[in-house]
Automatic annotation (TrEMBL):
Organism annotation: Hominilimicola fabiformis
Positions of the Aspartate/ornithine carbamoyltransferase carbamoyl-P binding domain: 3-146
Domain of life: Bacteria
Gene Ontology biological-process annotations: 'de novo' pyrimidine nucleobase biosynthetic process; 'de novo' UMP biosynthetic process; amino acid metabolic process
Catalytic reaction annotation: carbamoyl phosphate + L-aspartate = N-carbamoyl-L-aspartate + phosphate + H(+)
Gene giving rise to this polypeptide: pyrB
Function: Catalyzes the condensation of carbamoyl phosphate and aspartate to form carbamoyl aspartate and inorganic phosphate, the committed step in the de novo pyrimidine nucleotide biosynthesis pathway.
Protein known as: Aspartate carbamoyltransferase
Pfam families per record: OTCace, OTCace_N
Amino acid sequence: MKKDLLGLKDISAKEIENILETAGTMKLILGQPNKKTPHLQGKTVVNLFYENSTRTRLSFELAAKYMSANAANITASGSSVQKGETLIDTAETINAMGTDILVMRHNMSGAPHLIAPLVSASVINAGDGMDEHPTQALLDMLTIKEKKGGFKGLKVAIIGDIYHSRVVRSNVYGLTKLGADVSVGGPTTLMPPGMERLGVKVFNNVEDAIKDADVVMGLRIQLERQKKGLFPSIREYYRFFGVDNERLKLAKPGALVMHPGPVNRGVEFSSSVIDGEQSVINEQVTNGVAVRMAVMYILSRGGFED
Ligand code: CP
């Protein structure tokens, strides 16, 4: 059994379906006035975040607390990382305090893969550099499943900064495993070479990418990771790749508008699209708690099949 969730690249379609089904059950708990369940009673969950987060960190913390776990948070800025402690020493220190589940976000791709074999705790990747963000893709998939009923033959268009995005990689692995037809669109300078090899169609204009799509997912332009000018200006990005109500009409009627957040309003999507009838962005956030409850519960029961 696998004790960790490091990415969707290495888990099977059957395991993904199991997580989504379990998350559906967990979501019923979120609708109750009393959200406390004993699923993780006596377990300890630590969130170790080397990068900023609102949704992921809070939803892991709430998910752990709803399931009666002991939950604690550490950020790099407020820890002994500032005194020069290494990632491995930090993780081993947290592990030595009786931690059962270590949720990690790190700016370095592969950081959770480095730590997982060194600790007895289950490691959950909450986003590593430009590699994967598996629980984000799982919550996206739960939202799509709820709204569209399944994935086979569904056209999902993912638009934006494909190069720097860990969300796109996890979504591509997960969605293609379950039979969706995935297109990615963005400026050539934000498109990594070899995306086609992951089984997706690649477009360098937004119109072709979103034509007849069932789902239009925007990705944040990651200004903090742009070391050199990969496109002339934000205004030009919006002009050529931003999705407004006119462009959204190219997708199928009733297409879902999704975004992992945080959104740059007026960059990836117009405000009218973000706040419009087709947007399920807030439902994605709710599903994030359900998915994280499901993942932690499955890991506490022995983990994923090899
Ligand atoms: N989607 C996502 O990972 O958001 P946060 O950075 O706020 O956790």
